Amino acid sequence: MSSPRDRVRFPWGRDQTRELILPAGRRVTAVLEPRQPTQVPDLAAELDRALANPVGLPPLHRFARPGQRACVVIDDRTRPTPVASILPAVLKELLRAGVREEDVAILIALGTHREMTKDEIKERVGPEAAGRYKIENHRLHDSNANVSVGRTPSDGIAVSVNRRVAAAEVVVTIGCIEAHEVAGFGGGYKNFLPGCAGPEAIRAIHHPRFQPLTRISHAGMPRGRSRVRRAIDEAGQLLGPKVFIVNAVLDPVRPAAIVAGDPREAHAAGAELYRAMAEVKLAGPADVIIANAAPLDLDLRVSMKACFNAAGALKPGGILITAAAAPEGLGDLRLPARLPRGAKNFIKKVPLPLLQLLTGLVNKSPDQAVGTISLLKLLKTAQAWLYLTDSIAGLDALAAGGIEFFSDPAALMARARELRPRAEAVVMPQAGASFIAWE
Question: In terms of domains, do 14 and 48 share one?
Answer without folding.
Answer: no
